[in-house]
Each structure stands twice: as structure tokens, then as C-alpha cells.
């Protein structure tokens, strides 16, 4: 379990910048090139769409894992059916640019089934605090 | 403070339903109160509360990492100020029971600052898909 996490290289310069600027406003313009990033995508999945959503996610994963910059991915399912986000994907990419390029390619590929009726919140993150 | 972290009970019946529907057959017999779990907590943090939220999170982390069953934790910050969830915590615990016990203890400790004005969605998850 931990081995997947430790595969993520932390770009120290970028990390220092982030921790020093928790006001955040400068981040969007500064961080856009070549640092490892974590994609976190939270899905609001109706109970009767869970199996469909997982199948669509698998199709996307099979495509994305072949793209440049892909590191790893994990799909999490809530232990409780009452949780707002029944599925949460956590993936590592070598850079925001690599992720954006892969997602654009995925969109054009036409291989991924639509996620009708499924809301999701996807964003790129950087780790700002860990165990000390 | 206790409301910051989820206190949801883990229901075996619900879990069996989920695993049966998603074909996660190996999990059904294993998922009880003694499996490693992933806590994912997504925070909707106004920009001017970001530093406060991180400090409160650090206080909680320092307490929780000393509790039985704690494995590791990571706080993620969005690269974009437009993302719905500016902070996302991803932590590993040895079991749902260990997590619940630690959270209850944290709530009673009184050491953690309040997270006023900060909405969050916290739930326990299990990994159902990884790289193949």
C-alpha cells in the first residue's frame, strides 16, 4: 500500500513555495508545468449507477495508464452508502501538463462511456503536509 | 470538533450489498471491523480561512498519529483556487474501529480548534480498483 504512495516524487522547490504561500492566490499561475501532481476525483453516484460508473472508470484507466506521465491510480469506494461521494479516484501524474494532455486525448478517443447522471468534482492537488 | 471527522458506523449489510453489486468478491468475507481503510476528507475552504484550516488540521494530525491503528496521512491543496475542495486529506488507518476510537478520543481532548465556516465531506473508503 505504501509503496504506491512513496513512488510519488515531491518537488521540494514547489512544495516550499506552496507552504510559504497558503494564501494560494499565486498558485494557479505558478504551478502549471513540471511537478508531480495528485488528481482527486470525487463522484456522486446514485446506487443504481455504481456498476456502470466503475466500468466506465476502468475504461478510462486502461486508456490513461498508457499515456505519457501517468504514474498510478486507485479507485476508492465508500464503506457507507450514505456518503456523499460513493467513489473517489486518486491518481498520480508526473505533471499537470501531462495530465491535461492525456485527458484531452481521452476525450477525443471516444472510447469512454458517458457518465450520465453522475456528478463529479475533479481537481489537481499537491501534497502540502505529511507525517512528521 | 468531533463533527469535523466522520463518525459514521460501518454497516456490514450495506457493505455486503456494495461488494456484491460491484463484483468485489474477495472483499465480502474480509470486510468487517478489522481491515485497513482510507479516510478521505474534502474541505470547502474560503481563501481567507486556508491558513487557519491547515493549522487546525496539523493539530488534529499531531494528536491522531499517536493513536492505535494510525498508519499515515497526507493533506492535499488544490493547484487551482477555483476547485470546490481546496484541501483534501487522505489518511490510512488499520481498521474502521481504530479510526472511530481515535476520532472520539480527539473530540474529547478539546485540543483541536474549531473549523467554523468550513464545510467538509469525510468518509471511510476501501480501494476497489488499482493498476493492473
From TrEMBL, chains A, B:
Residues 36-101 form the ABM domain. Residues 1-28 form the signal peptide. Keywords: Monooxygenase, Oxidoreductase, Signal. One of its GO terms (molecular function) is monooxygenase activity. Gene3D superfamilies: 3.30.70.100. Pfam families: ABM. SUPFAM superfamilies: Dimeric alpha+beta barrel. This is Antibiotic biosynthesis monooxygenase. It comes from Roseibium aggregatum. The lineage of its organism: Bacteria, Pseudomonadati, Pseudomonadota, Alphaproteobacteria, Hyphomicrobiales.
Amino acid at each position: 500500500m505504501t509503496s504506491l504512495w512513496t513512488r510519488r516524487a515531491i518537488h521540494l522547490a514547489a512544495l516550499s513555495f506552496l507552504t510559504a504561500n497558503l494564501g494560494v492566490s499565486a498558485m494557479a499561475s505558478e504551478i502549471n508545468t513540471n511537478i508531480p501532481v495528485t488528481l482527486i476525483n470525487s463522484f456522486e453516484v446514485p446506487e443504481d449507477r455504481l456498476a456502470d460508473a466503475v466500468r466506465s472508470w476502468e475504461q478510462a484507466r486502461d486508456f490513461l495508464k498508457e499515456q505519457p506521465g501517468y504514474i498510478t491510480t486507485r479507485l476508492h469506494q465508500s464503506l457507507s452508502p450514505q456518503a456523499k461521494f460513493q467513489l473517489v479516484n486518486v491518481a498520480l501524474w508526473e505533471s499537470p501538463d501531462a495530465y491535461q494532455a492525456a485527458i484531452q486525448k481521452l476525450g477525443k478517443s471516444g472510447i469512454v462511456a458517458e457518465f450520465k447522471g453522475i456528478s463529479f468534482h475533479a481537481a489537481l492537488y499537491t501534497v502540502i503536509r505529511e507525517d512528521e
